[in-house]
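#struct-pred

JT: dropping the chains for the assembly here, can someone run the whole complex?
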Amino acid sequence: MGEKKSRIPKIPYWLLNKIYSFDNTDAYSGDIEEEFAKIQKCQGKARAKRWIWFHTIAAIPRWLINSLSWRMNMVKNYLKIAIRNFFRHKGYTFINIAGLSIGIACCIMILLWVQEELSYDRFHENAADLYVATFSNGSIVTPTALSPYLKAEYPEVMRTSRYSPQGRDLLKYKDTDIYQDGGIMVDPDFLKMFTVPFLRGNPETALSDPNSILLSEQVAQKLFGTSDPIGQTLIYNTRVDLKVTGVFEDYPSNSHMQFLYILPVELAKIHNRNLNTWDVNNIRTYVQLRKYTPVETVDAKIVDVVERHRPQDKRAMTLQPITRLHLNPYNDTGGTILYVYLFSALAFFILLIACINFVNLTTARSSNRAKEVGIRKTVGACRAHLTRQFFGESLLLTLIASALAIGLVFLFLPMFNNLTGKAFTWELLIQKSVVLGIFGIISLTAILAGSYPSVFLSRFQPIKVLKGRRLKGTKGSIFRKVLVVMQFSLSILLILGTLMIFRQVHYLRAHDVGYDRDNIVYFGIGNRFRNNFETIKTELLANPNILNVTLTDIAPYRWMSNAGYGDVHWEGKTNQQVKMVMTSVDYDYLDTFGLKMAQGRFFSRNFSTDASDAYVVNEAAVRAMEMENPVGKELDVWGMRKRIIGVVEDYHFESLHNEIIPMAMRIDPNGHFQACVRISPHRIPDTLVFLESKWKKIYPEYPFEYNFLDDTIANQYRSEQAIGKIVTVFTILAILISCLGIFGLSSFTTEQRTKEIGIRKVLGATVISIVRHISKEFVLLVFIANIIIWPLAFFVLNRWLQTFAYRISIGWWMFVLTGILVLGVSLLTASWQIVRAAMANPVDSLRYE
Amino acid sequence: MKELTKLEELVMIAIWHLKDEAYGVQIKNKVKEISGREYFYNTLYTTFDQLTRKGYLTKHFGEPSAVRGGKRKVFFHITKEGRTALENAFKRHRRIWTGIDEESFHKEYS
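RK: done, full complex below.
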């Protein structure tokens, strides 16, 4: 019998023992084992097993009902006590709920933002297999020959497409003509690689004809209204007829590619663009690998692909997943991962500050609950029950705060959209991932806020508590002080951050860019303007409000920093690698922009050779080439050998994120695409009307569109400015929440010490000395917080500033100022209550003694 | 004095029958025998606990045995109060049912 007997199955046995846990546990499980053994003996092992399983499962519902009904009674009691407590101390409840709900609301909004940032380019069906060819310095602008080469040479590569964003084009259909931004030129495979939702037309063949065009819904609407655009013919830039072969849904905003119409890349040939050259970088290359191809193997093969064809370019080539493109800060597109981190940290800090408030207030005021704990323990509650009770109370408060927070999000979503420039709708809140996120935030809050107080409160010993002695916890434990210091530290960090962002943005805007950028109007021009420039100029200058007119290829600040590594040679070159930008200017360029010459002279009409045989370089170029006396030396940029006639002082032709790079100016009358006009600050509208009338004479078929240079420059720093605003708003909220906490804590301490204050007053203390005495503690805490956070703040902010080529230096006064600010605000909040107590008549507080 | 519930009654009667042999497994079998229904151990033991607390039952421990996984039996006995309660229940039932026999059910509807 011995060997046939098997042990009782563990799980049901354990469950059964869980189900019954009262007076006779031993006998109970003994009975089960006995019956199990009997059944096993009479009816076999299987029967016995089935019996015990059936027994267990069938017993569960009844057990649940029994135990829950008991528990519900307790829960009802807990709930009642909790609600009574909330109402009895309305002020503290308000502070807690307000803090937590603001904190949670901030978190939810930032969650929405982060979610949106991380969702970039994930909607493509092939997102996992799509890459963009990237140079090791982060540039994604590649030679045009790269795309066909990759597809032909590497079997792992399934499809490739070139991608070239266009400037603005003039699209004309019958009588409607519009300037349209947002065109791209791509290979036909582009439509198979990326998910472009077609409304009409066949994506398979849409781009096979080089004279075709695909329109987004929005552009189609503009041109054709309600009629069917398919098969209609558009006139492109007044010279080419294009057939509309498809209409696609407006492209989602969460993609690094933004386009409104698509043209076949072959069309670029009409601009005499070479589509199969290794010499210049001017196009993006997107690659789709075959499914499950490890990208590392392809990377290893293509690392030197450009160098093989252009030996002077040593940059390695890699494939970068498109899903990472938007976030990567080292790209031409400018990544946002830094801000994702920054905002997440911000949200977490705010929530943390709110939770600290909760913990501090609850533990400080624990004496109010101490008697309750004592009684509950005396009548038989164990510590676990009390922990559960107090945790439940925190949970309840958190849930109330969360409900309010969601309300706040609804209310402030439009404002948040305004701040971030995104278009969040409340529908986003019911997305699966967002709901999960919100759930996570709420749980995190409940745990952060509830765990310590519940452990702390349930720890009281009934004997000590019920004797009525003053509790240690009420006078301020070390733990609470640590939390307050943490709160102050976070506030200081946030204030410092805000200060720094604002100073940096201001610096960028006010920084001397080396030329006069105010009152410059620039607009694009074409052949007719170029060829008759001298006459047009005379006409324009006849207006006294037009001061200067000049032509150039690209206006300052419109540079894309992809000058490439063309061959640069000069007299006395050893082996320096110089990256040089070349721009084409006109004789009046210097005066129009108010540039200054460092050496030599600028181009002049008096020297006939200047038009063909002269370079003006900037100081950065001279430094890079290590030239001693540049004027008169020969310079060869991209195969064009000319003489240097002057050196212009460095000026910022790009955003201040970048350092000034070497540049050479020449005169190339056919390479001018922009006219820049300096106008006088008086009667600007009239001047603009005048300019337009002149424009209409030259180009009756084109509308006059212009930009002010200083607007363009301000736009460059818009993202920093927006970030600055967001950070400010959240910092103010964080400080508000901390202040709420300090206010609660100080009013509580004051309440506890009313009698002490009364006695001090009776003995002759003045109001000021009392305030000083009581606020001493807060001041000390603020000091400690300052000392702890300063090094950390310095480190973090310094890291951020490193991303700018031109930046402010971090001054010690900022730290001191912030310290004083925080000290002032916290003292003000704290002394509000203290002063009130100190002003009170001591008779009132002492009369019951 | 509160009336016994139906299950309490069943358990008391089972223990009454079993006399000195009244412990878990036996009581369960007896209850099944007289009521025709199988109860779970946790239900029965909850009832034992209630009855013990009310003072209708006392218990004494038996010897541990191997077949019970080394756990002792608990034997239940009916106390004086239990006896009275059971008697009251019996009387109540008799009072309620007086004047009704099985035949009367068939008479009514035939």
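JT: nice. Confidence is low (pLDDT under 50) at residues 560-564 of chain A. The radius of gyration of chain A is 37 Å.
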